[in-house]
Amino acid sequence: MTSENFLADLPLAGDLVATGFDGWTRELRTEFEAHSHDGRVGSRLLSQTPRVRVWEIRLAPGERWHAHRHVLDYFWTAVNAGRSRQHTHDGTTREVSYDAGETRHFTFGPGEYLLHDIENVGGTELVFTTVEHLDSANAPLDIHGHGPDARQEPRP
Q1: Which residues on neighbouring strands pair with residue 56, listed in sequence order?
Q2: Which pLDDT score is estimated for 2?
Q3: Which of 154, 68, 77 is nearest to 108 (CA)?
Q4: How far apart are CA 78 and CA 89, in angstroms?
Q5: Where on the tree of life does the source sit, at the highest rank (predicted)?
C-alpha cells in the first residue's frame, strides 16, 4: 500500500505532541526499521487458539516496549490507569493517559498496519491486555522473530 491515509481512521489515543519525526533519535529510527515486521505486540503471550492471540504488556515506570507491527484486527484494554508515550511509524509522537478498563478496537484492511512503540511515562506500572483476531484481512505476522521472512501478505 502506497498511501497511509488509513492511519487517520484508526482510533489512535492521546495528544499529538510531535510530527515529522521531531525528537526521534537515530537509535529509535533504526529500531523501527529492525522491528518493522515484528508481530510480538505484547511482552507475554498468554493464550493462543485458532481464532485469537491474547497478550499482556506490563511496563514499569520508565520501561518501554520496542516497536512492533499490528496487522490483525485487535483490541486492547488498560488493566490499570497510567500514562504512555508512543512513537508511530508516520513520524508522530503521542502522550496518552489511560483509565482502568479503557478499551480501544482496531480494524485493518488488506495491507494496512500500525507500527509503534510504547513507553511508560507515568509513576505506576502500566498493564494492558491485547486480543488479536487471527481471522483478519491480513495474515498473522511471525511472533518468533522479525525481519523480511516475517512479512505479512493480505489474505485472499
Answers
A1: 44, 129
A2: 41
A3: 154
A4: 22
A5: Bacteria
